Amino acid sequence: MTDTKLIAILPGDGIGPEVTAEARRVLEAMALPLSFEEAPVGGAAYRASGHPLPDETLALAKRADAILFGAVGDPAFDGLERSLRPEQAILGLRKHLATFANLRPARIFAGLEDASTLKPEVARAIDLVIVRELNGDVYFGEKGRRTTDAGLREGHDLMRYDESEVRRIAHIGFQTAAKRRGKLCSVDKANVLETSQLWRDVVIEVAAEYPQVELTHMYVDNAAMQLVRNPGAFDTIVTGNLFGDILSDQASMCVGSIGMLPSASLDADAKGLYEPIHGSAPDIAGQGKANPCAAILSAAMMLRHSLAMSDPADRIEAAVAAALATGVRTPDLGGTASTRAMGDAVLAAL
Ligand code: GGG
């Protein structure tokens, strides 16, 4: 008997519910041994229960075999104490679940060259993965406010990594590159930051275990430039939490839209949280304008990485490609199709 895998669906805020609904429809249409439970997270959870990551939501996330996450963020809570803001839900989940390895693949689907910010021949060459460290860096270092001796308000966020944190993500970077074209580019700012010098030292140590992978190093400012100058030169990028967040948003415009980039956040046992890299986009929430492709592609990553269902994952990715090949486009890609129409096109192509 096949055991049924439990998927926790955490739609969140803004366009999160719209895009996760399409991803769920695609999963349900495949008649896989999956069951689904939904729970509120982010601003939606704060409104309902006074906390962005309620105990029941965290318990479901821990109990589930995998998590499909939408997006969090709501300008209504901008002034709220930081620990209660919607974004704390995703940071809390990543920390509680120890999902330290964030895989963010960026490739251009045929026909989307015209939506890219790059020349078509440059855009066509993009096929890369950003391996972003997710549990450390300036996101999780000590934070604070104080008043200086001169009476000025000061804020600080400590950027820190220890060598074990760098080593484990470096292994993921090398393993990812080894399964692809065998090229790993480690991105840091070692000419200025001590954390980055440690990062570079440790990545070089780990490289000894992967002689088949060609390792290069790049400063983050140069990497940002090369991503728009010659993105086809990148295969796998391994980098810290902040740099990875910024570079992957940049990469998304090279492949047409931030609505196209999925992600997997994995723990040491490949249990994972899967989410589009985009945020809650409150400006278009509830209007049926959001592109659900990143959420649908995140569902495919979930099947592949956490549930050992590679064939269905391939089918979903092929269906997204086939749907786009018919010319259906949401507004972010220059079209007029609704979120639901894009989901329908993927379902029709399955
Ligand atoms: N689906 C991505 C999302 O909800 N992003 C909102 C956010 O605050 N993310 C923080 C981060 O990715 O570092």
TrEMBL record:
One of its GO terms (biological process) is L-leucine biosynthetic process. It catalyses: (2R,3S)-3-isopropylmalate + NAD(+) = 4-methyl-2-oxopentanoate + CO2 + NADH. NAD(+) binds at G279, S280, A281, P282, D283, I284, A285, G286, Q287, G288, K289, A290, N291. One of its GO terms (cellular component) is cytosol. InterPro entries: IsoCit/isopropylmalate_DH_CS, IsoPropMal-DH-like_dom, Isopropylmalate_DH. Its EC number is 1.1.1.85. This is 3-isopropylmalate dehydrogenase. Belongs to the isocitrate and isopropylmalate dehydrogenases family. LeuB type 1 subfamily. Keywords: Amino-acid biosynthesis, Branched-chain amino acid biosynthesis, Cytoplasm, Leucine biosynthesis, Magnesium, Manganese, Metal-binding, NAD, Oxidoreductase. HAMAP family: LeuB_type1 (MF_01033). Catalyzes the oxidation of 3-carboxy-2-hydroxy-4-methylpentanoate (3-isopropylmalate) to 3-carboxy-4-methyl-2-oxopentanoate. The product decarboxylates to 4-methyl-2 oxopentanoate. Pathway: Amino-acid biosynthesis; L-leucine biosynthesis; L-leucine from 3-methyl-2-oxobutanoate: step 3/4. Homodimer. SMART domains: Iso_dh. Mg(2+) binds at D221, D245, D249. The record marks Y139, K189 as: Important for catalysis. Its cofactor is Mg(2+); Mn(2+). Substrate binds at R94, R104, R132, D221. Residues 6-346 form the Isopropylmalate dehydrogenase-like domain. It is found in: Cytoplasm. SUPFAM superfamilies: Isocitrate/Isopropylmalate dehydrogenase-like. Pfam families: Iso_dh. One of its GO terms (molecular function) is magnesium ion binding. Binds 1 Mg(2+) or Mn(2+) ion per subunit.
